[in-house]
Amino acid sequence: MRPTNTRENGRFKLVGGVLCLDFANTRASRDTDNPIEYLHSYADLVAWAEQVGLVDDGKHLLEVARQRPAEAEAVLTRARVLREAIYGIFSHVSAGKPVPSADLDTLNLAVTDALSRARVVARPDGFAWGWAAGPDDLDRVLWPVARSAAELLTSDALSRVRECAGDHCGWLFLDTSRNRSRRWCDMRDCGNRAKVRRHYQRRRAARTSTG
Description:
alpha+beta
């Protein structure tokens, strides 16, 4: 079964455990004839960015997008290309397969652009990473995503990346369980469906054996 309620009450379902994996999960059921797309417009991209805390001025970005629709559409296209590259990379990592070079090239281009905008900024309690972004930069929502993917690829947490075992799901997540045994993106969703299916199969097998 494909994942449900990715946008529950207008909000995206976040189960990835890390920014770049949640971004990859804005598309589902890639292995079917009818993949589910959740980024239909630049407004959807902004809605996702607001929900995960990347921007707090979504209304301004949408106003700029209305004034520059061609640019907004180009950013949306870049977002989808980056998302599919991230999915391709981490789905292969989770399966223990070599990462496609084209996907890594796509990510590296996005990382190069993102890091050219990265800055160290002073805060009352110290210093932190920030961005040299103008309020009208429509693509600024993509920079933290690219950096997140690069950081995960080069971290010890990479070995914990998993792809959901649910039928036609394909969502990615970070397995933080103690024994690294998590199989489902969400136990309440894909996990429960698998549990119900196993129960049905056991009952069917029992009826067959006693028939």
